[in-house]
Amino acid sequence: MRNLINQELKNKVNDAGIYLAKLVSPDPTTGQFIELLAHPGNASQGMMNDAFATAADSGKPLLVFDRVSDLIDNDIGLRNDKLTPINFPL
Question: What pTM does this model have?
Answer without folding.
Answer: 0.55
